């Protein structure tokens, strides 16, 4: 109830602060018999880790996850899986400057308002380091779902796939067809934008922002392919609502829409509606996919596509007005090494949160309706 | 787990289809001793009910809610509250045309994909009639929260208030300052837009769309005032994430953002960050409120403001291509009486979902942190 | 979280007081397509209803349950099912004597300690009338489970059966073999004890106790047959633990054991252990069933058998010392019409709670492990 | 949902097998600011650890728990607390004999029936080693509750106390007044029975059973003092029901009763009812406490007392009939070092489960009713 768990049947509980002993996750409810290795989990973690390119924070954190339970002879056993990444020793002094001051637009003030005090080392629990636990847990879900094929969404049974990418950084927008994008396209450059030309301009922008000691926001396009029709619960736990919550729970996310979303406002129903037809395989399909892959909150078999908005991150090197913990006016010029733009590292997090939502709804639907 | 409950401590479970016996809700975990009458609940329901103006559906539904349990001598008792609205008799024939056909962009097809068959009378469980249960339950939360004052958010202790309004219909945008808008302003016209001039144009547009047998979308601005700092859980159950889920669970909602949201993408951190200062009362405040009232998912004491996107509703009178339940191509021209634009009736639903989120987090914070 | 819900996937939420509008239940997560009628539900309710024989309370309550949602064309639809029984008008005066006094060993005092006040009409929410909601909801689970066959537990695939009976009233014990008892045996007399001779003595005892204006306790033997091996979760949600909670949540229940339970204390492991063997069908079975059908909290395929202890009910006609709501010493001589012994009416409640536990674990196991 | 979590607001999730990386627990929802050290937690763990006396298993396991998150400057922070105990290296060969055979009355067979295979090293997840995680988590709850005083239960505000003890081993029963027993009394001998003379006889019995290569059961009396009136939820989540579930979730527990429990069966209501009176401090009290400290599932302010039945543990050195994983008949003579009687080591586990139940209900009541 304190909000550190996600999912009902495939349920993860994350723990850990940026500093202190460790960051990790317990995965409960995982089906037994999934064959997976620490190395396969690490592939996803490496997409998220700091220091991976010139446009991310130069911090080097030990994002090495170990499996300490629920695992035997290369397979999940059905019992809770502990995935843990130990924190490295650090110099407390690095963060002493933040001990008594509230960073603007950061969670320092609200944590103190809530709990009475806070672990001020490296943002404590509000650190994005927490998201490595989500990515690690989701890697197991992704492995399981890769063997589940969507019936309606198009011929080849390639399993459920999560292929998010960076669509916009600042005012620079990519032009990508989410229907044809591949995981390989996304990994083809350091900003994870499949539009190569635009990617270069995005990288330039981030480098400029970094040089300015500032930060910049952007949009990630989420794409989930081959989801079978029928997942999602019709009232509160719509796939669209659960994806929205999942994405809005990521640090720095301030907006979410699905299908045409904000772009549907000016349209008439007669324009926006997706007409049904029956394809050659006898599956009911829609000619367009303005809805984004869900109807009434339940997956339709079409590709699920949505957008996730990241604000510019709050920790910047420029001097800012703020107050200290006594309420006195002061100036802050953060010296830490932060990401000028979190989007490239956030792509695997969007994939992970998508996988956690789909995995959970897959099991929920299986329980009630199979 | 089948998604018909919302909230952890102030927990509602809704039930009922558009037709059949009744629609309603069980409210569990409600504090005892709240003085409230059926009439006070009805005030909110009347804002949602069909047939309230020339721009809503002319259907007349009996949105009269009765309290059947958890209530004694004018007060809640702490035990589960049953709120129920009986459905009226109806002519089955009205819906026979929908029995064997999938309405484009409606949930007919996905319900069948999920459950194997569906209650085809009046959209069944996918009917927006379900939302009356939410509005009724939330009226109790709103009563309770009206006695809770936010410490930081400005002077007069008027309790927590929910003042949403219509900001955009199609391409017509209002110009409203959410900081000064009042509940009375919202109710001053039938489209619930406090910008009177723009409201007239919106009404004209909806009438035109109605005459065309079509539908139109829009945006509701959600506003929650006087929320004390410290509510919300820092990781998955952020106030922002839970509001997002709450809004995205409303029928026809396809997008949500908080604070500047989508508008923050092009900004630098140095522009977007809200500088802290200490006000005359000694409260820590922010000079701007780009974040929208939450920092790290926890309320900051500033006004919570967010946007909710409604697509044009799918049921229209224009002829559309679709398939029947046998998968055969057919045409559909719906004859039912539907809203050309759901926004005016959705305003109290946005308020209601906001109240359910804040109420739940208020109790959760009280349990752990008071 | 206020304890009015039971089950995770087949989840019921009950509501209602003894007096006031109604008593009932929302069943969420019910599989679609279960064919059931109101009459089939009524069969179980009639086993629980007051006034059914000379040894139960002579009160006549309208235990007629209506299905108001989640039901279409004779089948469950997968959406929430509302089952409701309206309360009859009553004379408030009947209960005025209890308004200002705490009945010894009743919940009057603790409700006030908890909520600050209480609905004093007919015990309010603490009334055993609440259990009719459980019985109604469980009738649906029982229908579903009657089509599920246990693999190991013996030949004929008759589906999962719930056959509880009265084993002891006061000091009078029956001698029944739970392995061979049938539902028909249980219904063969008004006290629901399959040992006919002992049943007569039990009935005599209850009549004597009734004549004395007193009450008497007893033990119900719970029996669940044909549960497949593999249900139950190994740590906190053991089948044995969940059955224990289920039974201890019934009014007046003060004890529970499974298998030999309290009778195992004096035994050595070498006596108590159930040896495995392989039966003719190739199923792994145990020669004895001292464990009661679960090993490590997971069903073994053997018959689940357990005992449920009911204290003598607290409301009696004899004069008792107590205090009033001002804390002043007073005498109480209850004039209401109460059961001298709740056991005959509690048999279907034990069956119902057993069905809710098994149904929930069946779906949970299906989600993770099928 | 896979049963590895316990509690709603003070929620623990345990993980880990007997062998493999580690055993531990995440505590979510813990109030911030509790001052506690690893040493204080260790005190409880040392009461549970193997090898503590001549009558427990001679195994030496590293029951050293580390706090890796949710903790800063000697206090809980309000974020999830990871408590972890690493497993030592072990000789796989020790357990190879159990790899292909089902121990009678153990969970080997049912785990395989459920998950398809099992981690056969040292009972895997079914190992009682899992309970160290519960004891560690509960130590935090016990610290918090020690500062909470019951209003009605008698004068000195000493905080809520958990003082369980061994009441019976085999047929040997102690004679102890639970009202006056102290924690020190319990620790005064290695079997944790405050009746010194009887304790000696119990120890002799266990030594004899051990010499026989057999095992023996017993009863632990649970005692919780100074619980304020008003905790517990009136329907499913009664204090009595949740305590029952908590205790029945402990390995080898087969029965539970509260107050007079099984001993109430032969009584009349007029004998069993606890008469109310008002004490000198003006608190409503009961002259007797047959109910065991709860009325209608809600704490009354009187001492909560209950009994927990442990069967003789299944792993013994005597030769037993069983089958192997192929279903073939075989003999088993376990060579491992197991407890002949788990009761002395189970006393802190009963205290721990009691603390988890009371802590959770304390927070739940605070949320709704304070």
From TrEMBL, chains A, B, C, D:
One of its GO terms (biological process) is amino acid biosynthetic process. One of its GO terms (cellular component) is cytosol. Belongs to the chorismate synthase family. InterPro entries: Chorismate_synth, Chorismate_synth_AroC_sf, Chorismate_synthase_CS. Its cofactor is FMNH2. This is Chorismate synthase. One of its GO terms (molecular function) is chorismate synthase activity. It catalyses: 5-O-(1-carboxyvinyl)-3-phosphoshikimate = chorismate + phosphate. This reaction introduces a second double bond into the aromatic ring system. Keywords: Amino-acid biosynthesis, Aromatic amino acid biosynthesis, FAD, Flavoprotein, FMN, Lyase, NADP. Its EC number is 4.2.3.5.
């Amino acid at each position: 109830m304190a909000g550190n768990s996600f999912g009902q049947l495939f349920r993860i509980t994350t723990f850990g602060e940026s500093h202190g002993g460790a960051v990790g996750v317990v995965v409960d409810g995982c089906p037994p018999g999934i064959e997976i290795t620490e190395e396969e989990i690490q592939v996803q973690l490496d997409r998220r880790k700091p220091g991976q390119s010139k446009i991310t924070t130069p911090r080097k954190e030990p994002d090495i996850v170990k499996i300490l339970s629920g695992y035997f002879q290369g397979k999940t056993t059905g019992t809770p899986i502990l995935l843990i990444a130990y924190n490295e020793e650090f110099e407390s002094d690095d963060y002493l400057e933040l001990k008594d001051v509230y960073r603007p637009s950061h969670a320092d003030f609200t944590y103190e308002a809530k709990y009475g005090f806070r672990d001020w080392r490296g943002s404590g629990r509000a650190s994005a380091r927490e998201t490595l636990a989500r990515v690690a847990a989701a890697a197991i879900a992704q492995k399981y779902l890769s063997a589940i094929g969507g019936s309606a969404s198009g011929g080849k049974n390639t399993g459920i796939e999560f292929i998010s990418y960076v669509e916009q950084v600042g005012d620079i927008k990519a032009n990508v067809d989410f229907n044809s994008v591949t995981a390989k396209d996304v990994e083809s450059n350091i900003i994870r934008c499949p539009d190569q030309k635009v990617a270069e301009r995005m990288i330039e922008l981030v480098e400029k922002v970094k040089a300015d000691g500032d930060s910049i926001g952007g949009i990630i396009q989420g794409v989930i392919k081959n989801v079978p029709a029928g997942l999602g619960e019709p009232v509160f736990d719509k796939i669209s609502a659960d994806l929205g919550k999942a994405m809005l729970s990521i640090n720095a996310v301030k907006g979410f829409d699905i299908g045409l979303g904000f772009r549907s406002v000016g349209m008439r129903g007669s324009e926006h509606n997706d007409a049904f037809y029956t394809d050659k395989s006898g599956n009911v399909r829609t000619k367009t996919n303005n809805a984004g892959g869900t109807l009434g909150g339940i997956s339709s078999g079409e590709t699920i596509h949505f957008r996730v908005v990241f604000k510019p991150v709050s920790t910047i090197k420029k001097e800012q007005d703020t107050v200290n913990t006594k309420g006195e006016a002061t100036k802050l010029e953060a010296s830490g090494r932060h990401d000028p733009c979190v989007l490239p590292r956030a792509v695997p997090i969007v994939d992970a949160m998508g996988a956690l939502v789909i995995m959970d709804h897959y099991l929920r639907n299986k329980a009630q309706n199979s």
